Amino acid sequence: MAALGSPLRTWRGLLRELRYLNAATGRPYRHTAAYRYLVKAFRAHRVTSEKLCRARHELHFQAATYLCLLRSIREHVALHQEFHGKGERSAEESAGLVGLKLPQQPGGKGWEP
Amino acid sequence: MWRSCLRLRGGGRHLLNCPRGGLTASEGPGPKPPARARAYAPPAERKRFYQNVSITQGEGGFEINLDHRKLRTPQAKLFTVPSEALAVAVATEWDSQQDTIKAYTMHLTTLCNTSLDNPTQRGKDQLIQAAAKFLDTDTVCYRVEEPETLVELQRNEWDPVIGWAERRYGVKIGSSTSIMGPSIPARTREVLVSHLASYNTWALQGIEFVVSQLKSMVLTLGLIDLHLTVEQAVLLSRLEETFQIQKWGNVEWAHDYEVWDLQARTAAGALFVHLCSESSAVKHKLLQG
């Protein structure tokens, strides 16, 4: 079985992602359906006496998977907007990506319109 | 500046000369339009046209409402999903769009749409075949012969997963360094195909999606059977790339970009499979109890 760490850690991670998601709408994340559903699910399956409960492990696995989904999408969108979302780059920007600069020529290069 | 004016006049004359109604077909010799500063711009995204997202329970399952309008699939079918958790996750996807709707971040919605519309018209058997096809060219079964560190890395990381799958399903998988790939026994294929047949169509769409992302049947089974986490499965799927990155360096806009996308897709697929095959799991438990 996959080692997932403590459920509390997953729960905190999920809350953090929900806060990120709802920064867009401006509403508090506690009013969202996702928050209510997650609270319900985490409370209902809070078992303390059993050492290994299959169903509980399954739920924790799903929660961890969902956390991974939200986090990966957030990071992916950030990189997409930084590097990919704006169409083709100009020559200056392309050069800047690899740490280069276009040569400067005070009187122009002679072929500008 | 003058040159561009001349060009404009030339273009105008060309437009005046062409026959009426023939604007689209007039691609004869004439002045070409001036080259744009940017050759490619990404297509504009739709604006977020709704304020509130809510969930209602209908006859066929759970439905999503965007401001009193029901969400529909691209083929204009009513969007209904079988599980509440999935509906909540899809609603969260729609609710978390900021100003524009970024469809490429909505993997769960995409998977649900694919299952509802079934645009490729594939049945259960075809989905199973599409997934089982990856078994012959499974990533974790292809090994390299050099360099020695990578050989050792592949042996240490991939052998335990293959061993787990062999014990779990009682089959023989093995690995190979030949370019023809490993020879998978026919019985292995039969066992795995009959195992996949126990999933419903929705879950199979998800399984096929994950298999085609990870390029590996074994890793997908590990993910579906809760043996591997998403992060582990993605890392194992990109083992050689990770090794080369350690040697040659990481490029953020290519490698990291791809890792996050792959993780997001794999997580969405795995979650989709788990949520869609859940109802049968609950029934199973009730029968036992």
From TrEMBL, chain A:
<dbReference type="GO" id="GO:0005739">
    <property type="term" value="C:mitochondrion"/>
</dbReference>
<dbReference type="GO" id="GO:0009636">
    <property type="term" value="P:response to toxic substance"/>
</dbReference>
<dbReference type="GO" id="GO:0061469">
    <property type="term" value="P:regulation of type B pancreatic cell proliferation"/>
</dbReference>
<dbReference type="GO" id="GO:0033615">
    <property type="term" value="P:mitochondrial proton-transporting ATP synthase complex assembly"/>
</dbReference>
<protein>
    <recommendedName>
        <fullName>Protein FMC1 homolog</fullName>
    </recommendedName>
</protein>
<dbReference type="GO" id="GO:0050995">
    <property type="term" value="P:negative regulation of lipid catabolic process"/>
</dbReference>
<dbReference type="GO" id="GO:0008637">
    <property type="term" value="P:apoptotic mitochondrial changes"/>
</dbReference>
<dbReference type="GO" id="GO:0071542">
    <property type="term" value="P:dopaminergic neuron differentiation"/>
</dbReference>
<dbReference type="Pfam" id="PF13233">
    <property type="entry name" value="Complex1_LYR_2"/>
</dbReference>
<comment type="function">
    <text>Plays a role in the assembly/stability of the mitochondrial membrane ATP synthase (F(1)F(0) ATP synthase or Complex V).</text>
</comment>
<comment type="similarity">
    <text>Belongs to the FMC1 family.</text>
</comment>
<dbReference type="GO" id="GO:0061744">
    <property type="term" value="P:motor behavior"/>
</dbReference>
<dbReference type="InterPro" id="IPR037667">
    <property type="entry name" value="FMC1_homologue"/>
</dbReference>
<feature type="region of interest" description="Disordered">
    <location>
        <begin position="88"/>
        <end position="113"/>
    </location>
</feature>
UniProtKB/TrEMBL annotation, chain B:
<dbReference type="Pfam" id="PF07542">
    <property type="entry name" value="ATP12"/>
</dbReference>
<protein>
    <recommendedName>
        <fullName>ATP synthase mitochondrial F1 complex assembly factor 2</fullName>
    </recommendedName>
</protein>
<keyword id="KW-0809">Transit peptide</keyword>
<dbReference type="GO" id="GO:0033615">
    <property type="term" value="P:mitochondrial proton-transporting ATP synthase complex assembly"/>
</dbReference>
<keyword id="KW-0472">Membrane</keyword>
<comment type="subunit">
    <text>Interacts with ATP5F1B; involved in the assembly of the F1 component of the mitochondrial ATP synthase (ATPase). Interacts with FMC1.</text>
</comment>
<dbReference type="InterPro" id="IPR023335">
    <property type="entry name" value="ATP12_ortho_dom_sf"/>
</dbReference>
<keyword id="KW-0143">Chaperone</keyword>
<keyword id="KW-0999">Mitochondrion inner membrane</keyword>
<dbReference type="GO" id="GO:0005743">
    <property type="term" value="C:mitochondrial inner membrane"/>
</dbReference>
<keyword id="KW-0496">Mitochondrion</keyword>
<comment type="similarity">
    <text>Belongs to the ATP12 family.</text>
</comment>
<dbReference type="InterPro" id="IPR042272">
    <property type="entry name" value="ATP12_ATP_synth-F1-assembly_N"/>
</dbReference>
<dbReference type="InterPro" id="IPR011419">
    <property type="entry name" value="ATP12_ATP_synth-F1-assembly"/>
</dbReference>
<feature type="region of interest" description="Disordered">
    <location>
        <begin position="19"/>
        <end position="40"/>
    </location>
</feature>
<dbReference type="GO" id="GO:0005829">
    <property type="term" value="C:cytosol"/>
</dbReference>
<dbReference type="GO" id="GO:0016607">
    <property type="term" value="C:nuclear speck"/>
</dbReference>
<comment type="function">
    <text>Plays a role in the assembly of the F1 component of the mitochondrial ATP synthase (ATPase).</text>
</comment>
